[in-house]
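Batch queue: ligand-bound targets. Current item pairs a single chain with flavin mononucleotide. No template structures supplied; prediction is de novo from sequence plus SMILES. Inputs echoed for audit trail.
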Amino acid sequence: MLNDPNEIVLDTQAFLVSETDEKGIINFANDEFCKYAGYEVDELIGKPHNIVRHPDMPKAAFKDLWDTVKSGKKWRGFVKNHTKDHQHYYWVFATVYPFINCDGKKGYISCRRVISEAEKEKYEKLYKEMRSKER
Ligand SMILES: Cc1cc2nc3c(=O)[nH]c(=O)nc-3n(C[C@H](O)[C@H](O)[C@H](O)COP(=O)(O)O)c2cc1C
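Prediction returned. Tokens below.
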């Protein structure tokens, strides 16, 4: 939201990366992911990725993410995350890729970039509608 003091807007060049195991447990986060989320890397490793889940995010978005990547396809979507202090949030456009580790296990990588004000406005509205229909 424009001029919202609780929003952290990503730099245009920001590239936030995290990797999870098959169950969504974080096993890698780059410096930029840590910086925007407000965590030290050690606080993220071993934690479920919903550690950054913002309550405005509809359940259906993550169901779609998981259904897509588990079927071996890449998922792309708009995500609002909160920071460690739960006071701030940041929007990203995420692309999540499934891959197979060298030990044959499945993993997932998410790469995130900045989104436009128009996209934020659109997805704030859409996700609010989706949330209002959730039970
Ligand atoms: C690689 C990867 C990255 C993810 N990144 C995020 C993220 O940035 N924010 C988020 O809320 N959930 C992310 N998720 C989805 C979470 O695993 C989780 O499904 C979501 O936060 C909803 O949490 P819940 O199932 O406890 O409601 C990611 C999942 C994967 C596989």
